[in-house]
Design brief:
Elements: H1 5-39, H2 42-53, H3 55-70, H4 81-105, E1 122-125, H5 136-144, E2 149-151, H6 165-179, E3 184-188, H7 190-201, E4 210-214, H8 230-234, H9 240-249, E5 257-261, E6 280-283, H10 296-310
Parallel strand pairs: 1-2, 1-3, 3-4, 4-5, 5-6
């Protein structure tokens, strides 16, 4: 299955934003090298170019410093300095692969795959400032395992999290129609909140086999206090939007959730912010925010459970109402 024209246009808005950022960065580096090599030494020009290119590593280090100061809590094991350094380095390696390659340039590498099948399908929901290209490694693994999937693009980029419900509903219905079965949802970061709002607003809990979230700020995150974007502000701890979501859900809505959290999550902290009462809350200690979604242990665990669910009778109800 290939994208319709609307989803292609929506996709390119995020991809082009990140393409522009990459091209601007390249232009700044070229200008610096040209000016510095003329007026300064070649060594200074090269050092400055590397500093610009890897400046994001300094930003990541600042996030981990804030985690170490403000993200410590008694309920979660305090990360060691070795864990923090390893998590930082893992994020330094992983981040450009996602934000400088997969999302801006390879976001249509793997089209949605919905062959006629009775196999359990998967809906992939990305997080803040991302697009479906985030899931490229997952889509390759799912297709090789014969598991149908749809990867959504949450638009508008900085819109309200509740505005993404229709896109999730459309993806779920596409999987239902293709497989005749209720899907599994795999969500990263903000995507998990968008899924929760969709489930509550559409009374859709019975249409989902299971929801796996990784680094989702279910209870908000300390770092969101610095966000000026609408969806970023909604992820602040104690925000009115999170309170409204909790009231909309009501009690006992978390049993289908599996929530991965980490004591080295540089975006969502404190770590228990990524947990839900009544859910299967699993520790992924030592893993940073983006790296968590691609760590072999986390991926294998989730894929293994999807395959196991695929072999079981469908316990969720596929809605026939349209």
């Amino acid at each position: 299955m290939f994208f319709n024209q609307q989803s292609e246009n929506e996709l390119m808005s995020i991809a082009r934003t990140q393409q522009l950022m990459m091209l601007t960065l390249a232009a700044v580096i070229c200008c610096w090298i040209g000016l510095a090599s003329t007026n300064l030494s070649a060594a200074v020009a090269l050092a400055g170019a590397l500093a610009i290119l890897f400046g994001y590593a300094v930003i990541l280090a600042a996030e981990f410093a804030l985690l170490a100061i403000f993200g410590v809590e008694h309920a979660v094991r305090r990360p060691t300095w070795i864990q923090v350094v390893r998590a930082w380095w893992g994020e330094v390696v992983c981040t450009p692969r996602v934000f400088c390659w997969h999302q801006p340039w390879r976001s249509r590498m793997s089209p949605d795959w919905l062959p006629p099948s009775r196999h359990l399908g998967v809906v992939l929901v990305h997080g803040f400032f991302c697009n479906r290209g985030f899931w490229n490694p997952w889509m390759v693994r799912l297709r090789s395992a014969g598991i149908p999937y749809v990867a959504v693009d949450l638009e508008p980029l900085f819109g309200s999290i509740d505005s993404y419900s229709d896109q999730i509903e459309n993806a779920v219905r596409r999987v239902e129609d293709a497989t005749g079965r209720a899907p599994v949802v795999v969500a990263h970061s903000m995507g998990g909140l968008a899924v929760r709002w969709w489930m509550a607003g559409h009374s859709a809990g019975a249409r989902i086999q299971r929801v796996f979230t990784m680094g989702t700020p279910h209870r908000g995150t300390w770092l969101a206090r610095f966000s000026a974007m609408r969806n970023g502000a909604q992820m602040r701890m104690g925000s009115d939007w999170l309170d409204e979501l909790t009231k909309l859900e009501g009690p006992n809505n978390d049993a289908r959730f599996v929530c991965y959290h980490s004591n080295c999550d540089n975006i969502v902290f404190p770590a228990t912010s990524a947990t839900l009462p009544g859910a299967d809350n699993r520790s992924a200690d030592g893993l940073a925010h983006v790296r968590m979604a691609f760590h072999p242990r986390v991926m294998e665990e989730i894929l293994s459970e999807i395959k196991q669910l695929n072999a079981e009778p469908d316990k969720a109800r596929v809605s026939t109402s349209r």
